[in-house]
Amino acid sequence: MTIEYIKLSPTGNITLLVPTPVPRALQPQVARALLARVGGEQVGYIEGDARLQMMGGEFCGNAMMSLGALLARDRGLAPGEALALSIGVSGADGPVPCRIEAAEDAWLGTVRMPLPTGIAEASLETDAGTLVAPLVRLPGIAHLILPAERAPSEEELRRRLPEWNGSIGADALGALRWDAGAGAIDPLVCVPSAGTLVREHGCGSGSAALGCWLAHRAGSGVEVPVRQPGGTITVRVEISGGRITGVTITGRVTLLEEGTAEIEL
Fold first, then answer.
1. What is the C-alpha radius of gyration for the chain, rounded to an integer number of angstroms?
2. Following DSSP, what letter does each residue of 132-198 receive, concatenated?
3. For the segment 183-219, what is each residue's pLDDT rounded down to a tens digit?
4. pTM of the predicted structure, to 2 decimals
5. From residue 246, how far is each of 45, 171, 197 by CA, in Å?
6. Rounded CA gap, 157 and 150, in Å?
């Protein structure tokens, strides 16, 4: 099967977007094969004119920015010009607003993220005993926020994440090692249906989850630059009447390559 792909870097979170029609039942299998062949951290499928279906049915703000950047390019957006879009995406109940501004050799994307469906604590069994950590649930994905000084190693997280998700039950589960002093996260994301467990260089939903937890803890809105291996994503969280009423993330998207790959099914 010949698969056309576009490889983009939204804040280092290498994303492959696939315009080739692929039946949803085959999308996880094709994604695994494509990532092994081409490299990257995640795969999204472009359906119709502007709908994004992620490889495991999860929600992804970075992939949305990437699709928005492609749409801006196809419309000939010049540096300094901006485009407001509404993009359908897996893991969300309806179209999600996205703003793309063209820059020199890149695009700046701002995505209005779905509101959290829950902020609580989870008790996690680790090699060192029980660890209680914040758990932020977003539509299509949940994230654990693990203080860096107490977080398990990456090796242990790779063993533990699928096990933890057995009780958490998320479409995708992230573990964010959070260094408060450096204002940085180191994200590891498990997508069970796609069979992937990836250390991401940039995580949009993880940045949003961290911002929501910080705002929830403070009881007020926040604007936080969140450093990660691939760069910085800025998250803004609005609170009204004690409730989170708005969440956006802003990052930078660059186009890396376009090509085709032969995938055997």
1. 18
2. EEEEEEETTEEEEEEETTTPPPHHHHHHHHHHHHHHH--SSEEEEEEETTTTEEEEEEEEGGGTEEE
3. 999 999 999 988 899 999 999 999 999 999 999 999 9
4. 0.91
5. 27, 22, 29
6. 12
